């Protein structure tokens, strides 16, 4: 029986042209973030199962690839629960491993600590365009900075990177989990109903205001509270102009339900980024932005790109998460670029890596060997020293097809070597 040559469902082989683009994008990310003071780190792809199932990761915790215990520790025959046979899992994001890393190494790290992490993560998700079961994430995080300087730096670093990759006219949507809670309290929903209300609100861009209302009523929420809640968004849609004006409308509507410093915090982030940004994008205050991860405690933000028709990254503040590991809370905030979706958009646009070395192919007739072969290889070595990218290959019978293939790989010039 022949082995299966296809990749596992939800995973993919990466061909050379895409690999060149991925390497280029990673270099741009690395260089840009380094200019903002971020230091690259790495964490293991396998995490303790207890860390991954700590109710920090929202729905992603349902998508973990779990790892069985090994050797004598694995006793399937006598096990009655999953916990008795599983002790690890592939990481579903980079944040939980990063917080564990910081908690374990904080004594030797600077404060504030600005971390850059790029690596694969795994989710047993339903594959679709731009979504895989194994995919690269690229995160920057700041630990130990309680002020909104962290949010400003994260947004500027991320948008500068996107601008240098050629993206423009995208949006950074921003909100605050505390504002979401204030809206829920204003409408009269009970404290324990907050998460359920947010789950429905998060569908606003897909099902609209009427759809959100229907779902809230269907879930048994008080009709008066639902009407009061949705009136905020109906009025917001008609009142919004720029981000600061839109924020003022919601804040004024909430009155004493919203602490003044939350409004001032968001306003300062918006105006600071707008006045100092390098890339072409808009800051948009969006009171329907939820972000599903359970660890967010304050500001949340998301990249919206018209080319993709959805989110291409996001992040926020998670000040309580380090305390889950150490017993002492540390201010923390992070931003993740949707690396795979960025690559998808670049590939679909016909992007080519700028400033590549000149690519030359030396085609050597079969039969050439000995001193003459060494002479040709020596010539290639000198060309490489001079900054060229040289491929040395044997000449095929169908030379035209061979050259066409090489041209598709970016080879611009050819030198042919024959026996005579």
Q: What does this entry look like structurally?
A:
The protein contains 14 helices and 14 strands. The chain is of the alpha/beta class and 420 residues long. It has an eight-stranded mixed β-sheet, with helices on both faces. It has a three-stranded antiparallel β-sheet with strand order 2-4-3. Strands 13-12-14 form a three-stranded parallel β-sheet, with helices on one face. It is globular, with a radius of gyration of 26 Å.
Structural class: alpha/beta
How large a portion of the residues is in β-strands, by DSSP E?
Answer: 15-25%
**Which residues form runs of ≥5 with pLDDT under 50?**
none
Fraction of residues in helices?
40-55%
- The backbone outline, from C-alpha atoms, is globular
**Mean pLDDT over all positions:** 90
Following the backbone from N to C, one meets helices and strands in this order, namely HEEHEEHEEHEHHHHHHEEEHEHEHEHE
Q: Tell me the number of strands.
A: 14
- What's the arrangement of strands in the largest beta sheet? 1-5-6-11-10-9-7-8
- Ends apart, CA distance between termini: 48 Å
Number of helical regions: 14
Biggest beta-sheet profile: 8 strands, mixed
The rounded Rg comes to 26 Å
């Amino acid at each position: 029986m022949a082995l299966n040559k296809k990749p596992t469902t939800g995973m993919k082989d990466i061909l050379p042209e895409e690999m060149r683009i991925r390497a280029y994008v990673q270099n741009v990310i690395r260089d840009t973030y380094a200019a903002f003071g971020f230091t690259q780190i790495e964490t293991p792809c396998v995490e303790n199962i207890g860390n991954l199932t700590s109710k920090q990761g929202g729905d992603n915790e349902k998508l973990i690839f779990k790892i069985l215990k090994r050797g004598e520790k694995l006793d399937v025959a006598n096990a009655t629960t999953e916990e008795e046979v599983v002790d690890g899992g592939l990481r579903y994001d980079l944040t939980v491993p990063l917080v564990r890393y910081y908690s374990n190494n904080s004594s030797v790290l600077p404060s504030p600590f600005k971390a850059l992490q790029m690596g694969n993560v795994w989710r047993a998700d339903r594959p679709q365009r731009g979504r895989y079961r194994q995919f690269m994430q690229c995160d920057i995080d700041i630990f130990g900075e309680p002020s909104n300087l962290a949010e400003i730096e994260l947004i500027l670093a991320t948008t500068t990177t996107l601008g240098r990759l050629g993206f423009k006219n995208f949006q950074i949507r921003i909100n605050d989990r505390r504002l979401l809670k204030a809206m829920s309290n204003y409408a009269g929903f009970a404290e324990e109903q907050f998460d359920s209300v947010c789950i429905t609100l998060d569908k606003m861009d897909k099902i609209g205001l009427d759809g959100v209302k229907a779902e809230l009523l269907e879930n048994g929420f008080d009709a008066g509270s639902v009407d009061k809640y949705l009136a905020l968004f109906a009025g917001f849609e008609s009142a919004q102009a720029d981000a600061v004006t839109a924020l003022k409308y919601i804040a004024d509507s909430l009155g004493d339900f919203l602490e003044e410093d939350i409004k001032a915090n968001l306003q300062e982030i918006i105006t600071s980024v707008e006045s100092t940004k390098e890339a072409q994008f808009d800051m948009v205050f969006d009171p329907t932005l939820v972000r599903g991860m359970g660890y967010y405690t304050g500001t949340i933000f998301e990249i919206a790109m018209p080319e993709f028709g959805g989110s291409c990254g996001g992040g926020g503040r998670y000040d309580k998460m380090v305390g889950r590991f150490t017993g002492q809370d540390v201010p923390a905030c992070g931003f993740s670029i949707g690396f795979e979706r960025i690559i998808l958009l670049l590939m679909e646009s016909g992007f080519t890596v700028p400033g590549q070395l000149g690519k030359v192919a030396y085609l050597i007739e079969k039969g050439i060997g000995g001193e003459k072969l060494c002479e040709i290889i020596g010539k290639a070595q000198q060309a490489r020293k001079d900054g060229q990218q040289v491929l040395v290959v044997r000449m095929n019978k169908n030379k035209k097809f061979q050259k066409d293939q090489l041209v598709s790989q970016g080879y611009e010039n050819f030198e042919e070597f024959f026996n005579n």
